[in-house]
Design goal:
single chain, 17 helices, seven-stranded mixed beta sheet, alpha/beta, 3 domains, about 15% strand, binds guanosine-5'-diphosphate, three-stranded antiparallel beta sheet, Rossmann fold, binds magnesium ion
Length: about 475
């Protein structure tokens, strides 16, 4: 009798616990979001069969039974293309999944055994896990809400370094042919805006990250809409405010100003209100190694982009985020991806480098009492650690295949443990070769520390 009561009591507790988690994955383009989510779904689907998830407590204790896909709750959001990604990885030769360019979502139902005292297993329970993938570029737009068109315009044009300026020059020359009070034809506006978007894309291609507005790079369903047809206006500043404000509604200045406001109200705000606000947990992926490979100006630019991006997680009482949207993320992970590009002895440095890259935001998060942890991981491990002998000494190396299939045995170099000094860049001691993924078989995808990230992001929900 007594035994039965305890059992029912336990059932009640189980039902009362929150059994739902909205986990969001973000990062700038090419940071590794698609690879991460594909691997995450794959690992969970193989849990209890052949996945290697020793650092995920519920898996280690053999309580995690498996995961199933169920239909997603938001019918207006594209489904995360898991099957398509797996098809690419299973192809011969295997290929990295196609890049995705907007927000997508997938719902999993996890089954697991709850934990009782003294290691006894409890009942079977389910956790509904909503996974959301969205471009980090969209978060670069948060500060845009603090500006009006004029101050935004000035800030955009002032902040460019020489290499970055190079990509904006042709566009600037084209705009310089027009004045702020001129009535510019709709088609010409569209042209100038397209030219501006193009200059952002070129800068992006050349390795820059700190680019605004974010939707110009990843327009999603807004491709071609007039709301994306504005740009900063060179040659005017705060001193001209009064004169500019007095211009007629048809003037170039007023038209751009109106569109900028529309972009704030109908693009930036709705994303935070309808999506961001509802996330419970977040992982931010960063391609630290890619930036190291790209040199000092790109690396510094990534650092600024990350500082901007992380402002969306600034929950200080007086932060813009809290004032506008009262978000609820209660735990955050930041991860340096593609760790399989360096030898395992460099992984600890990769984490400390990431931590120093994000030192300020991490401090703010801790102050605001949002737990945050840094990781290095490989969602889909494409290399194997090896050792080679050179000059009679043993040296760590990586074995893998290049994108066109040729076998490689390389030592990519040392990862600096903190922000690199000028000396590091002079030596250029880092060479990053892209690898193609290993052939995917029927077993779970090979990874590095996906399980550690999972434990941090959802382990407490699987008790
Ligand atoms: N070696 C290795 N490469 C990776 C890994 N994850 C991503 N990549 C590489 O980075 C590219 C971009 O990754 P993707 O997930 O598409 O980035 P997204 O734009 O953030 O979704 C991929 O095409 C791969 O070349 C990984 O775990 N290991
Ligand atoms: Mg993607």
């Amino acid at each position: 009798m007594r035994r039965q009561l305890t059992h029912e009591f336990q059932n009640l507790i189980d039902r009362g616990r929150d059994r739902q988690l909205r986990l969001a994955v973000t990062g700038l383009s090419r940071a590794g979001k698609t690879a991460f989510l594909t691997s995450l779904v794959n690992q969970l689907r193989h849990a209890g069969i052949d996945a290697r998830l020793d650092l995920l407590k519920s898996a280690r204790e053999e309580r995690l039974l498996g995961a199933q896909r169920v239909s997603q709750p938001d019918l207006g959001i594209p489904r995360f293309p898991y099957d398509e990604a797996m098809t690419s990885l299973e192809a011969s030769p295997p290929q990295w999944p196609e890049p995705t360019r907007g927000i997508s979502e997938l719902r999993l139902q996890l089954r697991y055994k709850t934990r009782r005292a003294r290691g006894l297993l409890g009942d079977t329970a389910t956790l509904t896990l909503d996974l959301i993938d969205y471009p980090g570029e969209w978060l670069l737009d948060l500060p845009l809400l603090e500006h009006d068109f004029l101050s935004w315009s000035e800030a955009q044009l002032k902040g460019m370094g020489p290499a970055r300026q190079q990509y904006a020059q042709a566009w600037q020359d084209a705009v310089a042919k027009h004045s702020a009070d001129e009535t510019v034809e709709e088609s010409r506006l569209a042209e100038l805006a397209a030219h501006y978007a193009d200059s952002l894309r070129q800068a992006r291609e050349a390795g820059f990250s700190h680019l605004q507005p974010g939707r110009f790079l990843l327009p999603g369903e807004l491709q071609g809409a007039p709301v994306l047809q504005f740009f900063p206006l060179p040659g005017v500043g705060e001193d001209d405010r009064q004169a500019l404000e007095a211009l007629p509604a048809s003037s170039l200045y007023q038209v751009l100003k109106k569109r900028f406001r529309f972009y704030q109200q109908h693009v930036v705000k709705p994303f935070y209100r309808e999506h961001f606000r509802r996330f419970d947990r977040q992982i931010v992926l960063v391609d630290v190694l890619g930036a190291l490979n790209a040199g000092p100006e790109r690396f510094e630019d990534l650092s600024q982009a990350l500082a901007t991006l992380m402002r969306s997680f600034d929950y200080g009482k007086r932060s813009l985020m809290n004032r506008l949207f009262s978000p609820r993320i209660d735990r955050l992970a930041i991860a340096a991806t593609k760790a399989d590009h360096v030898t395992p002895d460099q992984h600890a440095n990769l984490v400390t480098l990431l931590e120093s890259l994000l030192a300020e935001p991490i401090k703010d998060l801790r102050f605001a009492n949002v737990p945050v942890r840094a990781f290095s991981l490989a969602s889909i491990r494409a290399t194997e650690p090896r050792e080679v002998e050179s000059d009679g000494k043993r040296q760590a190396a990586l074995r893998g295949h290049g994108l066109d299939g040729e076998p490689l045995l390389v030592y990519p170099g040392d990862v600096p443990a903190k922000l690199p000094e000028p000396e590091f860049w002079r030596r250029q001691g880092f060479a990053f070769t892209p690898f193609r993924p290993a052939a995917a078989g029927p077993a779970a995808l090979p990874h590095i520390r996906m399980d550690a990230a999972l434990e941090w992001l959802m382990g407490d929900k699987l008790r």
